[in-house]
Design goal:
Length: about 500
């Protein structure tokens, strides 16, 4: 098997992608992937080698992803808006041998110290490179096509960066079987069809965009309309222009479109499935979308580690506030602190088991052991209750993870960056509610005595080191941070403030 074969059985003339005002049929896509696959093999890349993809939501990403998979490589999708520092760490951790570099990532990548990445041998540029030493994508794709490399279900397909359940961002290991299983699980529940037109605004370096949007669309033989940068007005225009039938995104995407002054339900008349995920959906957003766009939002729940969908309410009776029922082929338990199943209506941590559950964290056996039980249950760190009809409701998170517009932010990473500021003695961050992004990052900062620092200075310092969504948007200066007996920061006291 090979996950890339999801594009094989669709008609040659059926449109697969709309990207940068150009359409690509499934026949064209198969030929392009075959050529790129041959080029990757021609560079000496072998099954199991890591191929990083630094592209926005466009044709470049899709053909690179499918070519890498079909060549037997492990694809590492990275955020093209990351800082050079973040890219350096992620490329180094995964040991990528090659990287596909899209236009939006060139500036940050130019500051990466390639000498510190001895395993990185090839940089494939998607356009005219600014400097020598880079391969051109068109030249690599011009190679003689090579056969698809068959993989076992347990062979790695992608490394997806996530904050996991504790610590700094980690690379979750998802196999061909993990991703394929979740496509089949969600496909049976959502009823995606070849005649669907899917809105591709969710970032493809995020598991929601990669498998729920891109993977599901290609699996069903649908048409995917790719949007590189989200703008509410242009997204609404795309929905109306292309007759979008399936749209998925985080709550802030839906609220931004619904808040447009001239938006009308007629523009969303073709939409038959509208899904909100990656962050908690508030009642106000749900109601606003229903009134302004004329669509009823279904909600779901998932994690990078589950490839990603665990529950969904698509096609089910409306239950405001519910994340739906468990998808077919997945087991879920709600357990107490002792690992015992709780009663219906009582809160418990969500444990998940199934063929979609990841293989662990790359090069981090301790984190893997903390997340997975010996018999294959994933401890999610999320707390939910279930009703008599099997509908689940999230009630809390027992981990410190902050979710900004569906993206995971772990406090330790932000705090480590702030600690490098010459005027900061200590810092702690928490997530606080935000009307558009669900949560935003707030930092509590202890200045070094004698140093004069301002809020804007701290925010600018963070922006130079972290992706924008990870950066604090509010700084509160304090004399000391609350600590427990073991010296650990007591975040509940910061939240209480």
């Amino acid at each position: 098997m090979n996950l890339a074969s999801i594009i094989d059985d669709h008609p040659d003339d059926a449109v697969a992608l709309v990207s940068r005002a150009k359409t690509t049929t499934y026949g064209q896509l198969r030929a392009q992937v075959a050529g790129f696959r041959g080029g990757l093999h021609g560079l000496g890349l072998e099954p199991g080698d890591r191929l990083a993809v630094l592209c926005a939501n466009n044709w470049y990403f899709v053909v690179s992803y499918l070519a890498g998979l079909s060549a037997g490589l492990v694809v590492v999708p990275l955020n093209p808006m990351s800082t050079a520092r973040e890219l350096q760490a992620e490329l180094g951790l995964t040991g990528a041998r090659a990287v596909v570099l899209g236009p939006s990532a060139r500036t940050a990548f130019s500051a990466v110290e390639l000498a510190a990445l001895p395993e990185l041998e090839h940089v494939i540029d998607c356009g005219t490179p600014d400097a020598g030493g880079r391969l051109l994508l068109d030249d690599v794709m011009a190679a003689r096509p090579s056969p698809v490399v068959q993989r076992d279900r347990d062979d790695l397909a992608v490394l997806m960066f996530t904050s996991g359940t504790a610590g700094l961002p980690k690379a979750a290991m998802l196999s061909h079987g993990n991703l394929w299983a979740n496509l089949e699980q969600t496909g049976r529940q959502s009823g995606s069809r070849p005649d669907d037109v899917v809105l591709g605004v969710l970032p493809l370096f995020h598991i929601f965009g990669l498998n729920v949007v891109l993977g599901s669309s290609l699996h069903a033989g649908s048409r995917l309309v790719l949007i590189e940068r989200f703008d509410p007005a242009s997204a609404v225009q795309s929905v109306a222009r292309w007759g979008v039938t399936i749209a998925a995104g985080p709550p802030n995407m839906w609220s931004a479109m619904a808040a447009l002054p001239d938006v009308t339900p007629e523009q969303f008349a073709t939409v038959r499935i509208a899904v909100s995920g990656a962050a908690s959906l508030g009642a106000h957003t749900r109601q606003l979308v229903a009134e302004r766009l004329g669509v009823t939002l279904a909600e779901g729940y998932g994690l990078t580690e589950t490839a990603p969908t665990v529950t969904s309410s698509v096609g089910l009776p409306a239950r405001p506030g519910s994340i739906g029922r468990v998808a077919p082929g997945i087991e879920v338990r709600l357990v107490d602190d002792d690992g015992q199943d709780v009663l219906v209506g009582d809160p418990g941590e969500i444990w998940v088991r199934g063929p979609n559950v990841f293989r662990g964290y790359w090069a981090d056996p301790d984190a893997t052991a903390a997340a997975l039980t010996p018999d294959g249950w994933l401890r999610t760190g999320d707390v939910a209750i279930v009703d008599d009809e099997g509908f689940l409701y999230l009630v809390d998170r027992i981990k410190d993870l902050i979710i900004v517009s569906g993206f995971n932010v772990y406090p330790a990473e932000v705090e480590a960056a702030l600690a490098e500021h010459p005027g900061i003695a200590a810092a702690a961050v928490i997530g606080v509610p935000h009307p558009h992004s669900g949560e935003t990052v707030k930092a509590f900062v202890v200045p070094i005595e004698g140093h004069s620092i301002e809020e804007d200075d701290v925010i600018a310092f963070a922006k130079a080191r972290l992706a924008r969504y990870k950066c604090p948007t509010k700084i509160e200066f304090v004399e000391a941070l609350p600590e427990g007996l073991g010296g650990k920061i007591v975040r509940r006291e910061l939240r209480a403030r």
